[in-house]
Design a protein that fits this description.
71% of the residues lie in helices and 6% in strands. It folds into two domains: 355 residues; 76 residues, no CATH class. A two-stranded antiparallel sheet has the order 1-2. The chain has a two-stranded antiparallel sheet with strand order 3-6. Helix 2 packs across helix 7, helix 3 runs parallel beside helix 8 and helix 7 runs antiparallel to helix 14. By secondary structure, it is mainly α. The chain is built from 16 helices and eight strands.
Length: 463
């Protein structure tokens, strides 16, 4: 493998690993803030214990997210120097906003929340966790704004072969970024709520800490149901937007090879095992549904991979402009399928809550313990689709991936760092996984925490 291919593997592995923690942190921060709000308003000690328990898990995720996120930025300079030179004038602003504003705010108020138990007034302490929740979302927005510029470049002009920023507001207001932000925040709420449900269900099956976990699951189930439903709706409109901005990506997502009117939605398809098979061996589809979803008309035209390939070859020069069709097709379906399933599971659990049958429904609780892994699969599939579906472009229509690497970096150097980071991340996964699962298994502290709240810093939270 060349240094470029190894660099792509390295960035892919580290990105997927990093994004395991991002939605957990964003979602758990919001839920923890809600639990603390309930405690502030009611004075019910069970809400206080829920706040501290879910806050511990949020802090573990936050720590791993910070550690793994730092590596992402170093790779721009190490393995992707041509890319960094090309996009530097655009990326500087949103990345600076993320680092100097959102992340600093997030870290500062997270520290105040962590060490402010018993030191800050209840109202001020509550404000700190809401500021943490808001700044985590803001941090995600700035990163997504930068990434969305790669998907749909706006607010620039070309000077000496490089894009220079002309409007930061165009970059931040990019419709691609706004849809991606909404989709990401909803995915974070789905992820966090399913974690809360899975852990709560595990404890309820064992009859431990039932008051805390009954309250937690009753909050998380409607959050899951509504977030999943809205995610499907937002995802639909995002798909329509991508059909306009990146038609090749959406053609690959549905394995449409020839431009057609009245295209059906593919449920299951197979083709030759190569990057672009240029056709399918078999395809089970719902007639006209894809055209209706994408255009609003049953007979609407859907552009095909082969036709787009020919068009791009005329526009950009010889080459293959289709992504790996099988990966785009199946990652899209994994994300979409889990989204629909999450909505069904959420509404089913919400109905059981309304009927007062949730705790007694052991079959549903066991199912939700297993379902805790689903949002991680969906999030991973979503990022793979987003990034690999754009190939061969690293900046759509402007810079190809094979032109973005660092020419001075050897294959051996990239291989060494790839192996090193993969092993390091593997060790971190084992350590963090054990801490997270141990804290989740133990449940909320059963002892009285009044002494800690009276002024002693709660180092039990600082993992």
């Amino acid at each position: 493998m060349s240094s470029l291919e190894l660099a792509r593997w390295q960035f892919g592995i580290t990105t997927v690993y990093h994004f395991l923690f991002v939605p957990v942190t964003i979602g758990l921060a919001a839920l923890t803030a809600y639990f603390q709000t309930r405690w502030y308003r009611t004075g019910d000690d069970h809400w206080r214990r829920a706040t501290r328990f879910w806050g511990k898990l949020m802090l573990i995720s936050f720590a791993l997210g910070v550690v793994t996120g730092i590596v992402q930025e170093f790779q721009f300079g190490m393995n992707w120097s041509n890319y960094s030179r090309f996009v530097g004038d655009i990326f500087g602003a949103p990345l600076a906003m993320e680092g100097l504003a959102a992340f600093f705010v997030e870290s500062t108020f997270l520290g105040l929340w962590l060490f402010g138990w018993g030191r800050l007034s209840p109202k001020l302490h509550l404000a700190t966790i809401w500021l943490v929740a808001g700044s985590t979302a803001l941090s995600a927005f700035f990163i997504l704004a930068a990434n969305s510029w790669m998907q749909h470049p706006v607010g620039y002009e070309m000077v000496d072969g490089r894009p220079e920023l002309t409007s930061i507001w165009a970059v931040l207001g990019n419709n691609t970024a706004l849809y991606a932000f909404a989709h990401t925040i909803l995915a974070a709420l789905i992820t966090a709520s399913m974690i809360v449900i899975a852990i709560s269900a595990w404890h309820l099956l064992r009859g431990t800490q039932t008051e805390v976990f009954t309250r937690s699951i009753r909050v998380a189930l409607p959050v899951l149901a509504v977030s999943a439903l809205v995610t499907v709706i937002v995802g639909h409109f995002n798909g329509v937007l991508m059909s306009e901005q990146q038609p090749m990506k959406m053609a690959a997502a549905d394995a449409v090879f020839e431009t057609k009117e009245g295209a059906g939605l593919s449920l299951f398809a197979t083709g030759d095992f190569k990057s672009n098979p240029e056709g399918l061996n078999r395809n089970v589809e719902i007639p006209n549904l894809l055209s209706f979803i994408s255009t609003g008309y049953p007979q609407g035209e859907i552009q095909g991979i082969n036709n787009l390939n020919a068009e791009y070859q005329q526009k950009y020069g010889p080459g293959e402009y289709a992504p790996v069709v099988a990966i785009a097709y199946w990652s899209w379906r994994a994300m979409l399928g889990i989204g629909f399933l999450a909505a069904v599971l959420g509404f089913a659990g919400w109905w059981l809550v309304r009927k007062g049958k949730l705790v007694a429904s052991t079959r549903y609780l066991k199912l939700m313990v297993l379902a805790g892994v689903l949002p991680f699969v969906a999030n991973t599939a979503g990022w793979i689709f987003t990034e690999m579906g754009r190939q061969p472009w690293v900046v759509f229509g402007m810079l190809k991936t094979n032109e973005a690497g660092s020419p001075a970096v050897s294959t051996a150097e990239v291989l060494i760092t790839l192996v090193g980071f993969t092993l390091l991340y593997g060790v971190l996964a084992v350590i963090a996984g054990r801490i997270f699962l141990e804290k989740a298994r133990k449940g909320p502290d059963s002892d009285d925490d009044t002494e800690k709240e009276a002024g002693e810093p709660d180092f039990g939270l600082a993992y």
